[in-house]
Hints:
Elements: H1 17-22, H2 24-27, H3 31-47, E1 50-51, H4 54-61, H5 65-75, E2 79-83, E3 89-93, H6 94-130
Antiparallel strand pairs: 1-3, 2-3
Helix pairs in contact: 3-5, 4-5
Amino acid sequence: MRKSISDEQSPAFQFYASDWITDPNRMRLSLDEQGAFILLYCHCWRGFKILNDLEVLSKMCGCRLQKMEKIFPKIKHLFTEIKEKDGKKYLICNQAEQERKEQEKNRKRRSIAGKMGAKARWSEESLEESK
Length: 131
C-alpha cells in the first residue's frame, strides 16, 4: 500500500549512469525529452504524483507550453495516468514507482538482517555471561 505524501520517504533514488547511457528507450529521446523526463521524474519522486496538465508540466520543466506540447507525447509512455476522487487526472512515474518498491524491499531485508544480527549478538552475550 502506498504511503501518504506526508509520510517519511527516501530523499534520493538510485541513478546508474551506465543504465541511463545504454538504455535503448533513452536513446530514442531527444535531449529536450530526456531533460523533461528527468525533471518530471524528480517531481514525481518528491510528491508521488503530478497533475496531468500540460501547462503545469511545462512550468515544472521550465519551458513554454508549446514546447511541452511537442515533448510530452514522446515521454508519456513513461508515466501512468491515474484519476483521483477529486476528478483530476494525475501522472505517476513508472520508474519512480519501481524504485520505491525496490527501496522498500531493501529496507525490509536490512531490517530483518539487523534483527537477526541483534538476536544472535545478544543471545551469544547472554550465553557468555552465564558461564
